[in-house]
Structures are given as C-alpha cells and as structure tokens.
Amino acid sequence: xLVPAAVAERFQxxxxxxxxxxxxxxxxxxxxxFTSHAIxxxxxxxxxxxxxxxxxxxxxxxxxxxxxxxxxxxxxxxxHLARLPLADAERLP
Length: 93
What we know:
The termini are close together. This protein is mostly helical. It has helices at 5-8, 24-33, 36-41, 43-58, 65-70, 73-81. The longest helix is centred in the middle third of the chain and has 16 residues, at 43-58. The protein is built from 6 helices and no strands.
C-alpha cells in the first residue's frame, strides 16, 4: 500500500515506520508465518478459508465477487497465516 508521505507522517504505523533493529521482532514473526513449509502445512485450512465465502454466495447463484469475496480474502488469508484473529481482518484496508 502506498501512502502519501504527508499522510503517513501523521500516523505511527507499526512496523511500517520502524527501521532495524526496532522492526526485527515484527519481521521475525511474519517471516516464520510465510516460509514455504508453514504455508504448505496450512493448505487444507487455507482451502477451507477460501471456500467459505465462495460457498456462501454460490448458494445464491450470483454475487458481486469483488465486494463479497475478493475484497476480504487477502486480509483473511494473511491473518490466518500470521496467526492473528480473523475477526480483525475487517479492520485492514
């Protein structure tokens, strides 16, 4: 996400605004969640996570895919892999 400097400077966005070594604990947690082994071990859970919103709209036979599926899916996948509460995905842009 690109944020204009004039806007970004008004907000402290952790860990985005941190430089080494302050960002290291955040980076370590994220790096561990996104190794190939970690992602492979989550294949079934990720498939279920992706299937859930698709199944919800499939029963209706139509949907606004971007609004009802695609806009929330990346954040939900990220939250799952980072072991963060899925409910907080709604707070991400």
